[in-house]
Write a structure and sequence with these properties.
Length: 322
C-alpha cells in the first residue's frame, strides 16, 4: 500500500461533565492510503463523529483533545497554529458535516456560497474565471451550472447535499470526511448522493472517510471498514473480509442486525444498550452485551491484534484467519 495520506495515532478526546469525564474517543489509531475509502461505523454515541471533528481540531469546550497525533502528508497538525489549521480545512481535509445541507446559508445563492469558500482561502479569480470554476464544480457533482443562481430553499434535499459536496471539494482536498452525508434523504437519493461522492473522489484522487451507521450503505462504498464501540476501534478490515468473516462479536452482531432479502423473518437486534461513555464497564466495554464474555473480558481490556489479511480486531477470543 502506498504511503499514508493521513495517519491518526492514539487520538483521545474527552468532554467535561458534572457527573464525570466523558471519554468520547479513547486511543484511536488508523491510517488512510491516498485514494482509499475508509468507513467508520458504530451505534450513535460511539465517538465516530467526534473523531472526525478531532482530526480537524474542531472540538469545542467542554470537549478537548487530550492527546494523540494527526499527520496529513507527514505534517503534524497538532502543532499548527489556528490560522494554519483554518487554511488546511477545506484545502487539505474537507468535512461534509452531519446535517450539512441545513448548514447552507438560506439567504445566499449557492454560487455565492462557493465563491465565499474560495475567497476565504485566498483564491482570487476574474468574474469570468470564477463563474466557470463554480459551473465546473456544480457539474462535477451532477448539478446544472444554473443552480449557482438558486437559493437553498429552491433545491431538493439531494441537490442541497450535492451543493455541500461541491463546496467541500472546491479546493481539491487530499482527504474528504463525510459525516453521515445521506441521513435525512430517501433511499433512492441516498444512492445518487453516494454515487456522486464516489465519482468526485475518484476524479480528485482524494481519500475519503465515511462516517455512518448504515452498514449496508457503507459496504457498497468503502474499501475498508472500521467498527467503533465506546470510543474505540474494535475491528478494522477490508470490507469484503469483514462482511464474510467478521472477527469481533460486536461486528457480527451489527451484520446480523441488517435486513436481508435471503433471510426473511425477524431482525436480530443487539441486546442491551451502548454504555455511558462516562461510566464504561471494566475490561472489554462490550462485555455486558456479549454472549461470549468470560472472566478475562470483565477484567482486561483487549487490544487490537492482527487477524490476517490486513484485518485487526480487539477481542480476547478472536482468532486470526489463515
Ligand atoms: Fe466479547 Fe470478551 Fe471479545 Fe469483549 S473480549 S467482545 S466480551 S469475547
Amino acid at each position: 500500500m502506498s504511503e499514508a495520506v493521513l495517519e491518526v495515532r492514539d487520538l483521545r478526546v474527552s468532554f467535561a461533565h458534572p457527573l464525570g469525564l466523558v471519554r468520547a474517543v479513547d486511543g484511536v489509531s488508523f491510517s488512510l492510503a491516498p485514494g482509499e475509502r475508509l468507513g467508520l461505523a458504530g451505534e450513535s454515541g460511539c465517538g465516530k463523529s467526534t473523531m472526525a471533528l478531532a482530526i480537524l481540531r474542531m472540538i469545542r469546550p467542554p470537549g478537548r483533545i487530550d492527546g494523540g497525533s494527526v499527520r496529513l502528508d507527514g505534517v503534524e497538525l497538532s502543532v499548527l497554529n489556528e490560522e494554519a489549521m483554518r487554511r488546511l480545512r477545506l484545502a487539505g481535509i474537507a468535512l461534509v458535516p452531519q446535517g450539512s445541507m441545513n448548514s447552507l446559508n438560506p439567504v445566499m445563492r449557492i454560487g455565492a456560497q462557493i465563491e465565499d469558500a474560495l475567497a476565504d482561502h485566498g483564491v482570487s479569480l476574474s468574474r469570468t474565471a470564477l463563474a466557470e470554476r463554480i459551473a465546473d464544480l456544480l457539474e462535477t457533482v451532477g448539478l446544472r451550472a444554473g443552480v449557482a443562481a438558486s437559493y437553498p430553499h429552491q433545491l431538493s434535499g439531494g441537490m442541497k447535499q450535492r451543493a455541500c459536496i461541491a463546496i467541500a471539494i472546491c479546493l481539491r482536498p487530499r482527504v474528504i470526511i463525510a459525516d453521515e452525508p445521506t441521513s435525512a434523504l430517501d433511499v433512492v437519493v441516498q444512492r445518487q448522493v453516494m454515487e456522486t461522492l464516489a465519482r468526485v473522489q475518484r476524479d480528485l484522487g482524494a481519500a475519503v472517510i465515511l462516517v455512518g451507521h448504515d452498514m449496508g450503505l457503507m459496504a457498497q462504498f468503502v474499501d475498508r471498514l472500521g467498527i467503533m464501540y465506546a470510543g474505540r476501534l474494535v475491528e478494522v478490515a477490508p470490507v469484503g473480509q469483514m462482511v464474510t468473516v467478521p472477527r469481533h462479536p460486536y461486528t457480527r452482531a451489527l451484520i446480523s442486525s441488517l435486513p436481508s432479502l435471503e433471510h426473511r423473518g425477524g431482525l436480530q437486534g443487539i441486546p442491551g444498550l451502548a454504555p455511558l461513555l462516562r461510566d464504561l464497564p471494566s475490561g472489554c466495554a462490550f462485555h455486558p452485551r456479549c454472549s461470549l464474555a468470560g472472566e478475562r473480558c470483565r477484567i482486561e481490556t483487549p487490544a487490537l491484534r492482527p487477524m490476517g489479511g490486513n484485518a485487526v480486531a480487539a477481542c480476547h477470543l478472536a482468532e486470526p484467519v489463515a
